[in-house]
Automatic annotation (TrEMBL):
SMART domains: DM3, THAP. The keyword Metal-binding applies. InterPro entries: THAP1/10, THAP_Znf, THAP_Znf_sf. It holds the Pfam family THAP. Residues 165-223 form a coiled coil. This is THAP-type domain-containing protein. Keywords: Coiled coil, DNA-binding, Metal-binding, Zinc, Zinc-finger.
């Protein structure tokens, strides 16, 4: 097992450096699937031994795994990310080092996050000469110190949040108007139905009283004009 490594040319994943969650998978047995694999791998592998070579799970899309993370029969390696090829360790370590932060962030509620960000920002001081580090395109100049860059980002983010809030308020208003319109149209529909029903009733009564057609029209016109 110790010499296990991914057969994809530049992929540096092997049994020793493999990050958690990465698995190795054997090549398919059927010639039909092998042909499909060859199409994908012809420029990616210098050597492929159908019996011994293994491909690491990084090269398969999620849809090709079943719930047990086993490779499905029709799986084809289609992913050859440049980052996986050149700097596997650095690329892998990022999610591992940030896993705790991600987990904690997922637990936070929106209001707590907002309060936390606001209080952190209050501790930062806006550079007095921020403007001198900002270009006319609202980017930082190459010589801008880190805090000026940070502040520009904070300002942009602030502006973005304001804009989003405005959009949200606008949307809410539109939804409210639509809801009101819908209710109004429902009401008028009901009114029309009621009118129609009473008209039908009047016509029926008139017919029962054997009013002539002319009398019926006269009475109906009077009712309508009311
Ligand atoms: Zn690989």
């Amino acid at each position: 097992m110790s010499n296990l490594h991914c057969a994809i040319g530049n992929c540096k994943i092997n049994a020793h450096n493999k990050p958690p969650g990465i698995s190795f998978h054997p090549c398919p047995a059927s010639s039909e699937m092998r042909n499909k694999w060859l199409m994908m791998l012809k420029n990616k592998c210098s050597m492929l031994d159908w019996a011994k070579s293994r491909i690491c799970s990084r090269h398969f899309e999620n849809k090709y795994f079943d719930s047990q993370r086993k490779l499905k029969e029709h799986a084809i390696p289609t992913l050859f990310p440049a980052s996986a090829m050149e700097k596997p360790l650095r690329n892998d370590s990022t999610p591992i080092f940030n896993a705790k932060t991600e987990r904690l962030l997922n637990k936070q509620v929106q209001s707590d996050l907002m309060i936390d960000i606001k209080s952190s920002l209050n501790k930062l001081k806006e550079p007095t000469n921020l403007d001198t580090f900002v270009t006319d395109e609202l980017k930082w100049k190459p010589d801008a110190p880190m805090e000026a860059r940070l502040w520009l980002m904070v300002k942009k983010q602030d502006r973005l949040i304001t804009m989003l809030m405005e959009d949200l308020a606008q949307n809410r208003k539109q939804v409210e108007t639509m809801r009101k319109n819908m209710e109004a149209s429902k009401l008028s529909k009901r009114e029309m139905e009621q009118n129609f029903e009473s008209m039908k009733y009047i016509v029926k009564s008139l017919q029962e009283k054997h009013a002539t057609l002319e009398e019926q029209i006269e009475i109906l016109t009077a009712v309508e004009a009311r």
